Amino acid sequence: xxxxxxxxxxxxxxxxxxxxxxxxxxxxxxxxxxxxxxxxxxxxxxxxxxxxxxxxxxxxxxxxxxxxxxxxxxxxxxxxxxxxxxxxxxxxxxxxxxxxxxxxxxxxxxxxxxxxxxxxxxxxxxxxxxxxxxxxxxxxxxxxxxxxxxxxxxxxxxxxxxxxxxxxxxxxxxxxxxxxxxxxxxxxxxxxxxxxxxxxxxxxxxxxxxxxxxxxxxxxxxxxxxxxxxxxxxxxxxxxxxxx
Length: 244
What we know:
By secondary structure, the protein is α/β, with parallel strands linked by helices. α5 links the parallel β3 and β4. It is built from ten helices and five strands, in the order ααβαβαβαβαβαααα. The chain is 45% helix and 9% strand. A five-stranded parallel sheet has the order 2-3-4-1-5, sandwiched between helices. The longest helix is centred in the C-terminal third of the chain and has 18 residues. It folds into two domains: 90 residues, Helicase, Ruva Protein, domain 3 (Orthogonal Bundle); 131 residues, Rossmann fold, CATH 3.40.50.
């Protein structure tokens, strides 16, 4: 007699939900600093002619900071998935005015992108102190000299300011989620908060999106936010509409 297929594992539904939740534009004001206040202020005050390299593990917030800072005229955000030709154009087209260039996940850059980033550093250094000066913000998962990159690029990553991003403590994450819930007029029970903190990933952008989605789900179902409601939301994840 054929066995009855088992229900999908809860972590799989949870991860699917987190993957398809609509993203929000990150902001510096929305960054939960914890022990990383100095890094946040350095990024916030990054001026033309200066450079900052951020490094930390998954969930440390480096991509949040780069995306948040690289907004506005003359600002560009790129990562390892961006075409190397785009990075090369920023490095060589001196007719293109730059305000800030942010390059994320530098450890994953291919050889062509590494060459382009090397050229961009040279343009940044040459332009410093001139009307064409721009800021350079880069990030990776390890310290500059530990990067699996060409040697001349590794040294350039450490030319100016370098900050290590520490993971948020559970207390910082819990307070950030309480604050987000309060902004939406919600009150998370200790049970729901503990479940989220122990079962979901540490990425604060995704956790924030989860709170927003939980609020919408609660309103649509006319039910208070409880642990059963949260589990229902995760179980319904495959049926949620995907964002473009």
